[in-house]
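REQUEST ID: PR-0412
SUBMITTED BY: lab tech R.K.
PRIORITY: routine
TASK: structure prediction, single protein chain
INPUT:
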Amino acid sequence: MNVLMLTPTAFPRCTGNAVTVDRIARLLSRRNISCEILDLSRTSPDALRKRARSAAPDLLHAFHAVKGGVAGLRLHEQLGVPLITTLTGTDINLDFADPDKRRVMREVLTRSAAVTVFQETLLPRLHRLGILRDRIRVIHQSVDFPERRDRDYRAGLGLSGDTPVILMLGGLRQVKQMDYAVAALKKIHRRHRTFQLLIAGPLLEPSATAALDEALRTHPWIRYLGEVPRNQVPSLLEQSNLVLNTSRSESESNAILEALSFGRIVIARDIPGNAHLGTGAAGLLFRNRKELERHLLDVLEQPERWPAVGKNARRRIAAFHRPGRETKAYAALYRDVLRASPRARR
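STATUS: complete
OUTPUT:
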């Protein structure tokens, strides 16, 4: 089986979509499903059409209903092969609120052979778009890294093993609200002057880049690591004490899942995409800045309270976000879509 995957971004850019598509493709290759990844941000429409015809795929799999689905729908019409669309976060959380983009989403999803989402909490919005439940699969993301390459980030930054390290991991965009996190941490820093905030991820928007430059200029306790290679992320997580996510839109954050898999304490915004954290079971959710500040103080001032939470986080990932479970779900979906396609009935 040959699958052509269409993604808004791909490696070496370490965006959420890039991480998701790379992981799924690697996992499916272990089941002898050949996946070719096309980075739409680096492929012109003419080149896309030529590469798609050359690949001769059995299936098209688009990630992000607007950024990937529109191109996927065009190729579906040209090649006559089924299209599967995966909603990845900003499409269902932000584009859904824009009437023009919502119309595009509805057309893409209505004409897709199947639609996948990462969490059950997103189903009501799909129902509002008129997508029938039997065409939707809920497939949770898993945690799987390429062969790791260790690096001592603390030594490279001159940080001792006792220095509390707070990590923000992922592409920098306005929706991630880094400035919200910095404002809260600035207040906390008046009481705890030893911690360091490490920011790792690609710069994706000029406004986010400007905000980062200002934060680095005014706060020496903030360090920017750039895009950390995927095989070094395990080392970075192991050397962090706390992972912070202030994004106002998540579907199922790779960064959060990966942090939980290493037993890190996670503090994240209380939005549907982060509901899997529970309330203190595997992480801490905040609804406003006051709650965020309280959680930060709790973790920094009472480190002895959190080992049990870290262990529970590891158990949750092992139980519900296993690579084998994700691989089996996508492989079964691909088979079902191919069996139901007009081509298979000829």
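NOTES: The two ends are 18 Å apart (CA to CA).
REVIEWED BY: pending
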